[in-house]
Design a protein that fits this description.
This protein is of the alpha/beta class. The chain has a single domain (3-148, 218-288), classed as Rossmann fold (3-Layer(aba) Sandwich), CATH 3.40.50.1820. The protein has nine helices and eleven strands. An eight-stranded mixed sheet has the order 1-2-4-3-5-6-10-11, with helices on both faces. The longest helix is centred in the middle third of the chain and has 16 residues, at 144-159.
Amino acid sequence: MNGKAGTTAQTTRERQFDIDGLCIHAREWGESGVPVIALHGWLDNAASFDALGEYLDGCHVLALDLPGHGLSDNKPAHATYQIWDDLLVILAVADAMDWDTFVLLGHSRGAIMSMLLSAACPERINALVCLDGLVPGPLPVEETHLQLGKFLKDYRRLGERRARVFKSLDEVVAARLQAMPMGEAAARKIAERAAIQTEGGYIWNSDPRLKAASAFKLGEDHLRVLLSSLSIPVLLILAEEGFARYTELLDLADCVRGASVKRLPGSHHFHMEEAAEEIAVLIRRFLTA
């Protein structure tokens, strides 16, 4: 990054929290200022916020490895990874930080979780920043039984799956690029935190059950009620080659009263790539307005 953001890079630190028997890891920037909890996307981890956290001066940023991701523990065998399951974990981390109120900064799946928590507990959330995500695709109520069936089949199958072994970190990066279109540098940043080296090679340290279908998905009526209930400042930053392409989801975003919506060039992981600097500026302005 050049000096356009007008900041000095903040030092990155590692944190750990014991939350209900799970070890939750995090990356941290800043020591004072606006408290911000950052939530990554599906199969990403806290390293996805490196390009933003270092330059959000005036903020105390804590980017979590959500359960089953990055360096954090997997959930026990009986637990699930529905989008609302981790909301208690987020609140517990905030309590451990002595943050009565805080800002949520979410990308993709993390943005969906941030929206849900902001709607459910507005007394804890000062502002919401969503990066290329806000709501999941709604499910027609007529498909409820089919969705539940997919979940049951997937969860049993994936719970028994053995981790794939890669010969090198480069192979891990290549697999990540195949699963999610993004820049090579961004994929490597995520892989470096997610990959564990073993005697036989590298394995991706995320819970295979994360790939299971959800047991239940919200319908359009649910989403409209949740979005309409948001009473805090909301900044939605969209990638032109990402969320901005889905008109159905953009129509739902109109339910958020007074939201500030910005569109920037780039793909779904634009916050890790060329747009990161401009995104950092937009967030800083939004939080200090």
